[in-house]
Design a protein that fits this description.
4 domains, alpha/beta, binds calcium ion, globular, 5-stranded antiparallel sheet, Oligo-1,6-glucosidase, domain 2, 535 residues, TIM Barrel, binds 1-O-alpha-D-glucopyranosyl-D-fructose, 28% helix
């Protein structure tokens, strides 16, 4: 059966990390009015939907992914009127807006948790309490169980100890969440990104977490209570789920989610089984095999979100791009990912070629995971330099530095010293000079996103990989009806042979201006191009 395409299947989504996007009142912290002031910029890129990382009331232990009141706005970001104003202005520009929904856990400062700690009858089962801990580790390192003096029991947390996991087995809690979600929807927002939603079906005693036995049950209930019949989009963040399962949960005929962030391509620069801090170089063939598997599995069966970076991942340019060819590789990486089937997600700053950071002093890092892992590894006897090497590569702060708007102090993000240092390359990498230079990464993104919309093949076409075993380039065909397109992406700093066999073709976009395939059988360093095959 042919898929029915809805607006969100063709939309381009732009992720905003509010702390770091734009500061409107010069306190060094990005805020809602800052975002509103930059809507024209976002629109000019060709964006259809913005996704806001959390702006709810929070003690900010995990930068807002620790919510202490779902119904209030954190005053550092503004107030409810500012948010309503942002929603109104986003809609006025013809864009939509989705919010982050963090319902696997709350902050330990949430009133529910405070009451649960006191064994309050109505709330005692809102969280997961046991008399004895098990040997489960939290995703941020250390035990997933923390002892509570007040209640004389251990509570469960898959992230920081300040982020207790909600007990989804409690129907009263679930209903309270659904009510809150519906209140948000009634404000006129256009959907949600659901944080670690693959964890809500867990069985703690059986040690089944991601993709747990109750996942489908609770997702379906959530869908029925909140999403059914509404013209919204839902994208589930599911770091722990298989490609097959992610596709199944996003099949249009199933009552779960509209699309999935699945992470099969994310940990390919880690030593398998040793976690994110154990570094290894990317094996391009592995990356190709993974995306090939993803594209085949989702085709006509589910819907995938196309992303390479987000606020948890180091910027992909810094990770897989070339220091020698930063512009070419930024454009190449965008071509590689957005040439595929799925909904494109851009993480703020990718479109101007922002990079990562490498602070010498651990105290310059702000991320709770980074700080926590540093302490744990020091205690285990690792050397400062070795830990810092991993942190430089993988810390989440790599992607969280303030957005670089122009060459003025603090990159035009704020006139006050920002909460996290601005990358020192802001004078050469910023939005202003990207906009002024027509060969910039920004203009390439714009053209690429426009191209996707002009040709149905990008939405509907199938995916056929070329030379799977070639370690130098990642190239594939997209075919729809009688149209065939070839996407070529070099991952090499050298000129590479490319077996080009087509007589008739037209180059639709390329990161080199004049490559003539008629006269060469090679591609230049970090080449990217999309060719329409035939007349
Ligand atoms: O992230 C979920 C998650 O499991 C990972 O992306 C994880 O944060 C990362 O691999 C650790 O390096 C979501 C949010 O996106 C993240 O910011 C939050 O910290 C986390 O959930 C808890 O809410
Ligand atoms: Ca501010």
């Amino acid at each position: 059966m042919e898929k029915k395409i809805k607006w969100f299947n063709q939309a381009v989504v732009y992720q905003i990390y509010p702390l770091s996007f734009k500061d409107s009142n010069d306190d060094g912290i990005g805020d809602i009015n800052g975002i509103t002031s930059k809507l024209s910029y976002i629109k000019s890129l060709g964006v259809d939907v913005i996704w806001l990382s959390p702006v709810y009331q929070s003690p900010m232990k995990d930068n807002g992914y620790d919510i202490s009141d779902y119904k209030k706005i954190n005053p550092i970001f503004g107030n409810m009127n500012d948010l309503k104003n942002l929603i109104k202005n986003t809609h006025a520009k013809g864009m939509k807006i989705i919010m982050d929904l963090v319902i696997n856990h709350t902050s330990d400062q949430h009133s529910w948790f405070k009451k649960s700690q006191q064994n309050d009858l109505a709330y005692r089962d809102y969280y997961i309490w046991r008399d004895e801990p098990t040997d489960v580790s939290s995703i941020f390192g250390g035990s997933a169980w923390t002892y509570c003096e007040k209640r004389k029991q251990y509570y469960f947390h898959l992230f920081a100890k300040e982020q207790p996991d909600l007990n989804w087995h409690n129907p009263k809690l679930r209903n309270e969440l659904y009510q809150m979600i519906n209140e948000w929807l009634s404000l006129g927002i256009d959907g949600f990104r659901l944080d670690v939603i693959d964890l809500i079906g867990k069985d703690v005693d059986d040690k089944k977490f991601a993709n747990g036995p109750y996942l489908k049950k609770y997702l379906k209930e959530l869908y029925t209570a909140c999403f059914a019949g509404k013209d919204i989009m839902t994208v589930g963040e599911m770091p722990g789920i298989s490609i097959e399962r992610a596709s199944e949960l996003t099949n249009e005929h199933e009552p779960y989610l509209n699309m999935a962030f699945q992470f099969s391509h994310i940990s390919l620069d880690e030593i398998k089984g040793q976690g994110k801090w154990a570094l290894k170089d990317l094996d391009l063939i592995e990356l190709k095999q993974t995306f090939n598997h993803v594209q085949q599995t989702f085709y006509k069966k589910g819907w995938n979100a196309l992303f390479l970076s987000n606020h948890d991942q180091p910027r992909v340019l810094f990770r897989y791009g070339s220091k020698k060819y930063p512009q070419a590789s930024a454009k190449m990486l965008a071509t590689m990912i957005y040439g595929m089937q799925g909904t494109p997600f851009i993480y703020q700053g990718e479109e101007i070629g922002m990079t990562g950071i490498a602070f010498k002093d651990i105290n310059n890092y702000q991320d709770i995971e980074t700080k926590q892992i540093y302490d744990i590894l020091i205690k285990k006897g690792f050397k400062h330099q070795d830990i810092m090497r991993s942190i430089h590569k993988k810390s989440r702060d790599n992607s969280r530095t303030p957005f670089q708007w122009d060459e003025s102090t603090y990159g035009g993000f704020s006139r006050h010293k920002p909460w996290l240092q601005v990358n020192e390359n802001y004078k050469s990498i910023n939005a202003k000079n990207n906009i002024e230079n027509e060969n910039s990464v920004f203009h390439y993104y714009k053209k690429l996103l426009k191209l996707r919309k002009e040709h149905d093949v990008f939405t509907y076409g199938d995916f056929q990989i070329l030379e799977l075993d070639n370690p130098n380039h990642f190239s594939y065909y997209r075919t729809f009806e009688d149209e065939k397109y070839l996407v070529i992406c070099s991952f090499s700093e050298k000129e590479q042979p490319f077996n080009f066999s087509h007589q008739k073709f037209r180059v639709l976009i390329s990161n080199y201006n004049d490559i003539d395939f008629e006269y060469r059988q090679t591609i230049p360093p970090y080449y990217a191009g999309i060719l329409k095959i035939g007349d």
